């Protein structure tokens, strides 16, 4: 936290000492490091999220000619997605799943996969397509009538 605070103070000092001093102060972004630089008289700022977090919004911002930031301040969200669950099956992720990761699914023997065999974690921490389920293939055989399966 002290490191972030020092980086934030240095970034604010660089911004306030530049040609963009009339741009409004940037709000702090939790779990990030902000790096500011003067590029041809224009302040260019870059946000980098700490390990385990992902950036939502623009990574790089600048103070435009209207003395406004070109985009809203981004946010750093916890990067791990909810653990996938597949009863009577397995999935391809050995550890925590991060945003944008894709995983694949496979059912155990005597079970049939209902749904997609893959899913991806989105920035809002939801799975798309939805997580599948494994249904017993014995259940399906019991519902069949002789000569119709």
Order of helices and strands: HEEEEEEEEEEEH
CA-CA gap between termini: 63 Å
Report Rg: 24 Å
Query: Could you say which structural class the secondary elements and strand pairing correspond to?
Result: alpha+beta
User: Low-confidence runs (pLDDT<50, min 5 residues)?
Assistant: 1-20
What would CATH call the class of the largest domain? Mainly Beta
Shape: rod-shaped
**CATH level-3 fold name of the largest domain:** Complement Module, domain 1
Walk me through what this model shows:
The chain is an alpha+beta fold and 149 residues long. The strands form 4 sheets. It has a 4-stranded antiparallel β-sheet with strand order 6-7-9-10, with no helix packed on it. The chain folds into 2 domains: 2-78, Ribbon (Complement Module, domain 1); 89-141, Complement Module, domain 1 (Ribbon), CATH 2.10.70.10. The longest helix is centred in the first third of the chain and has 15 residues, at 2-16. Strand 1 (32-39) and strand 2 (42-49) form a beta hairpin. The chain has 2 helices and 11 strands, in the order H-E-E-E-E-E-E-E-E-E-E-E-H. Mean pLDDT is 79; it is low at 1-20. Residues 1-20 form the signal peptide. Keywords: Disulfide bond, Repeat, Signal, Sushi.
